[in-house]
Amino acid sequence: MAWWWEDDPAYQAVVRAFVDGDPEDHAGGPLDVRAVVAMLSRESKDAFAYDDIPWDRFPCGPETRDNVARLRSADANVVYGALRGVHGELANSAWSVAALAVPFLLRVAADPDGHHRAYALELAAGIVQWTPGPGRCTRETLLRVGDGGWRYEPSAYVGTWGIEAARDAVAADADLVMALLDDPDPEVRAAAAYAGVVASGRIDDIRDALHTRFRDEADPAVRAGLVLALAQLAYVDPAPEHEAWTQALWADPAMPPAVRVSAALGWLCLTDAPVPDDLRAVLDACATGETAQLMKSLPWMRAVDYDGDTALQRCVLGLLHPDQAAKPVMDDPWGRPPAFA
Fold first, then answer.
1. Fewer CB under 10 Å: which end of the chain, C or N?
2. Strand, helix or coil for residue 152
3. pTM reported for the whole predicted model
4. How many folded domains does the chain comprise?
C-alpha cells in the first residue's frame, strides 16, 4: 500500500525532478523555491497576497498556505496555531514551504496590531539558523548560521534551496527587519536582531543598524541579544576589528553583566585562542543565576536549551570545558515554541 504522500502530485513532481533527474536542471525554474520567492512582488507581499504563490508545486504547500492565511486573524489563538503549523513543517524539515511563508511572517511582525510578532520573526529566522540541539554548545556551534552541507527534505526536495530562499527573503525585506530593531516591544527587538543576521545580503547595513540599536538600547536582555547578533555576523563575516570589539566589551567593568557575558561567549566563538584568565574571571563573576534568568528568553539561549533555564550554564561549560560538557538532552525538533504574546 502506498503512503498518502506518494499519491500527491507535488511529491511525484519532486521525485521526477530531484530523484529521477538532476536537481540543477531545475535551478531557476518553477520548482526552484528561490526563484518563486524572488518573483513575489513587494506589492503582493505588502498586500498579504499569499495566493500569488504557487503553493501546490511544493509538498505540504496547501497546508502551509492555509496556515499563512490565518496569520492575520484577530484571534491571537488562531495566529498562534498558524505559526505552530509553519513551525511544524520546519520541524519536519520542509524548509521550502516554510521559506515561502517568510515574507508574510515578517509582515505579521511589522504589524503593530499583530499577534505573536516576536514568534513570527523568530520562526522566519529559524529556517536558516542552525540549531545544534540542546546541550550541543561549543565554540564551533553556538553562533553557526548553517552546517555548510546539503540538506534534503523527506520528499527529496533540495532543502538547501529552501534555506537559501529564506535568507534571500530576509535580505529583500531588510529595511522592514531593521525598522523592527526600534519596535516598542523588547521581545520584538531581540527577535529582529536574530532575524537580521540570517540575511543573504546587506550585511554592512544590518551590522550598522545593530550597532546603532546597541548604543541606544536600555533593556539589558535586548542589549545582550544585540551583542550575540553582532558576534554571529562576525562569525559569518569575520574581521579582526569585530573580535576586538567583543573583547573590549567583556573586559569593560562598566558594562552590565549580561552584556559582558554575551561578549565573552561571542569572543570565544570568534577565536580559537586559549581562554585568558581574565575572561574566565568575568564569566565567574557575571554568569550568575540572575544573568541566566535575564538571558533565558533570547533565541540563542533556547537553541541550547528549549526552556532556556540551563542554557547559560551549558554555554559556559561547553565553551570553556568541552570535554566536561553535559551530554545533549533529547533533541526534539518540534521544541517548545516561544510563549510570546
1. N
2. strand
3. 0.91
4. 1
